[in-house]
Amino acid sequence: MVTLCPTCSRRFEFAESVCPDDGARLMTLDDIDPLIGTVLDGRYKIERKLGAGGMGAVYVATQTSVGREVAIKVLRPEVGNDEEAIKRFGREAQNLARLQHANIVQLFDFGRAAQGLFYLAMEFARGRSLTSELAGGRLNLDRVAAILGQVCDALTEAHGQGIVHRDLKPDNILLLSQAGNADFVKVLDFGISKVMGPEKHKTALTAAGTIIGTPQYMSPEQIDGAGHIGPAADLYALAIIAFEMLTGAPPFQGDTQIQLLIRHVKETPPRLGDRLPDALVPETLERFVAKGLAKQPAQRCTDAQQFKAELKAALALAKTGLTVRGAGVVVRPGARDSSAAHAAPTMTGRMPDPALTIAAPPPVAPPTLPYAPPPRKISTAYNEAVTLPKSAVAAMQQPTVAIAPELVVAADGAADAQATVLHNLAAHANDPTPVPVEAPAKRRGIGMAVAAGAVALAFAVAAALWLRPKATPVPAA
């Protein structure tokens, strides 16, 4: 069996699957495209095929005059005689020629080769499709904002020229490493784009009842054909792509294309939180996505720059505050996280779970009170500290003096409280246990009670001395 390397064009007569020189997959003669190796229109040498679609195929070629790599899009021979297909192909060339933007592939040439093939020569961008990036799961917030922001800039240029893409999807968003940006965007394939403007200046190239676009990303107005198809259709597709980038899957899915189309028209789209049960999704981001997926074009953003600004604001809010990492674990900024799996959050590459929510308030220092020296205190039997007058403390430090309770007269409630305190002081003079104080309010009378007791004691001593019998002198013998 003879095989051929599509990269280096070497032929092999043994059963190898890849080229030993460059690692390219070998093709059998039955697989070989007849255009590969030929020079198209005397200027473009066809090197290899990149892909094929319903109307044509795309090749990598070398522009022989300057040695530049270009992408060649060729209309398939079987549709080369279809007048409608030729008009649509020409319209794509005209639309691309009007667009001059860094995020849109550039058109170099359009023509018909001697072989009768219509072709477009375009900028060849080495990169990877957004579809291949999403195959690994959802993207982090920084990448979502950066990629979709550039797509919005490309759409702003197209819509400003009156051109609606109508087939925006991850397959048509190419990511390049360029100028230090690993996610530099190129929007591809304006093949079914539509020019807006007065009806008398347009040619209807779409037959009645024909649906143009990819069902997964089509707007309701494209599906039912009831409304005007304008920039809002592209913004609806962009909201579908945003939902897919944030959650890992489009909002609507179906077993058949008809079922999928009906869901776009009839069903309410799911919330981001429904697809991310372990994430704390800010309501601002939920509202933004819901607005982008509104059934009525008038309810969506008015233009691509408004879409970009609102997306940026919603994602910026989502990046501050609570972060969901791992299996539904919520970690506040600044909080300790002892798990090794919950290391510092990463905002480049892919995120294990979206980083979403609201910032925690800063710590508040306790108020500073003016300094006051502590009063002298004594511990009571009721396990509380009360302040006693100096006179009472001094009385407790004097030698033990027995005071008869009957010497203390209670004149009223206050005097009764003072007598009680005085009695307790006397009773516990030799006892090391703390002195029980009935209530803080009785402290005020302690000094008066001590003074009264001292006066009573003095009178008692004086009376005892006065009433003592006097000794009778004994006469001398």
Counting DSSP H or I runs of 4 or more residues, the number of helices is 12
What is the spatial order of strands in the main beta sheet? 4-5-6-7-9-8
Which segments are poorly predicted (pLDDT under 50) over 5 or more consecutive residues?
198-209, 321-361, 376-388, 399-415, 434-441
Strand proportion: 15-25%
Bin the helical content: 25-40%
Structure report:
There is one protein chain. With 477 residues, the chain is of the alpha+beta class. The chain contains 12 helices and 18 strands. The protein has helices at 83-98, 130-134, 141-160, 220-224, 231-247, 257-266, 272-275, 283-292, 304-319, 390-396, 413-427, 446-467, and strands at 3-4, 11-12, 27-28, 39-40, 44-52, 56-63, 68-75, 107-112, 118-123, 128-129, 163-164, 173-178, 181-187, 194-195, 323-325, 329-331, 378-379, 385-386. The chain has a 6-stranded antiparallel β-sheet, with helices on one face. The chain has a 3-stranded antiparallel β-sheet with strand order 2-1-3, with no helix packed on it. A 3-stranded antiparallel β-sheet has the order 10-12-13. A hairpin with a 4-residue loop joins strand 6 (56-63) and strand 7. It is elongated. Residues 198-209, 321-361, 376-388, 399-415 and 434-441 have low confidence and may be disordered.
